[in-house]
Each structure stands twice: as structure tokens, then as C-alpha cells.
Amino acid sequence: MIRINLLGTERARVRKAITFDVGQRLTLAASLILVLAVAVIGGWFWSLRTESAQLDTELAAAQQEATRLRSLLAEVQQFEQQRAMVQQRVELITQLRSGQSIPVQLLDHVSRSLPDMLWLTMLTQAGDEVTIQGRSTTLIALSDFVGNLGSTPIFQRPIEIVNSQVQAASGTGAEAVPELIAFTVRARISRPEQPAGTASADGQGGRGAPAPGGAAAGRQGGAR
To answer: Is the peptide bond before 115 cis (omega within 30 degrees of 0)?
Structure first.
């Protein structure tokens, strides 16, 4: 009698089926893990590239901003230098105006007093006494110059013409020099603490007071 074990065959087939299903599952799981790893690495790499591109953009913007700030800083420094120069000039002008003394006023007045056809060759000051030398083509110009000098309280009156000499003409043609009048004028400066009117009054009350009487007496004596 022949016996066939059908149960053993079925069990083997079932075991083989079960074994095959586990292998597929492992393969599928490994594939899923690999795909997931590739996806994660790809996402991480894409994130790094995006972040790098953003950092490059921010770095370029920062460099442009730094360039702009450097130019602004240079302009600010230049402006500060110009402001310092202007402030120094303003302070200098202020000092000159506040410290404007008699010599400055003296030179300004003398330059304004020059008439036409008259020029100066020397101006000296010794204390309160000022001596002016120059040349003129006419006596009228010299008279106008002396009158202009006496038109300000800077000088005490009267202003004295020390001497005037006529220099004869010389040369011919282009080298000809016309007749000139060399003069020397002397004046005294009126200090702020001693106004010109007071000095003039003192002079008339002291040394100059008897002069009118003497002059009148001389004229009366001559009339007699």
C-alpha cells in the first residue's frame, strides 16, 4: 500500500510562500529607506543651495551698502573739513573786526583820501605822529589830500604840510617825466580816550590861544 503525505507538501509550499513574502518586504523596506534617504539628502542639499544663494545675495547687498557708506563717510569728512575752514575764516574775520585798531582805520582813511594825480611813496608812524610822503602833479591835488585827511576824527587838526618841492621835468619822448611836486605831510593821531575836539581845544587853549590876538595885533599895527 502506497502512502502519500499531502500535508508535508502543503506545509513546504506555505513555508516557501511565507519566506518569499518576507524577502519582498525586506527589499521593499530597503528600497523605501533608500528613497527616503535620497529624498532627505536631496532636500537638505537643496536647502543648503537656497541658503547659500540667499547668503550671496545678502553679501552683495552688504558690500553695496558698505561702498555707499564709505562714499557718504568721505563726503562727511570733506564737509567737516570745509566747515572747519569756514569756521576758521569766520573766527579770523571776527577777530579782525573786533581787534580793528587805529592803524587799520588809518590806512583805510589814507587810501580813501587820495585824489587823482597824487600818490604816496612812504608812510611812517612814530607814536601818535604820522609822516606821509608822496608826489603830486598839482598843488590842488595836494590841498585836496590834506583836506580829505582832516575830514575824520582819526587825525588831529590842523594837518601840517612840512615841505613841498617842485621837481623839474626830465627826459624826452617815452621816458619823459613831467613836473612833479614832492611833499611831506605830518599829522597826529587822535586816540579814543582823547577825542580830536578835546585835543584841538587843548591846543588852542594852550599854545594856540595867543596866536589870534597876536595876529590881530599885527594886522592892526600894520593898518596904523
So the answer is: no
- Domain final residue pick, 33, 67, 99: 99
Q: How far apart are CA 154 and CA 188, in angstroms?
A: 8
- Structural domain of residue 86, as residue ranges? 13-99
For residues 89 and 111, membership in a common domain is answered with no
CA 92 – CA 97 distance, rounded (Å):
9
Same-domain status, 89 and 165: no
160: left (phi over 0), alpha (psi -120 to 50) or beta: beta
> Over the stretch 54-110, which tens digit does the pLDDT of each residue have?
898 999 999 999 998 998 999 999 999 998 989 888 887 776 665 556 677 788 888
Asked if the model's pLDDT at residue 13 lies above 90, the reply is no
Virtual CA dihedral for 216, 218, 223, 224, nearest 10 degrees?
A: 110
Strand partners, 120: 134
Residues 117 and 170 in one domain: yes
Alpha-carbon span 65 to 220, nearest angstrom: 100
- Inside any domain, residue 19: yes
Q: Report d(CA 113, CA 116) in Å as an integer.
A: 10
Side-by-side strand order, sheet with 180-188:
118-126, 129-136, 180-188, 160-167
pTM, 2 dp: 0.41
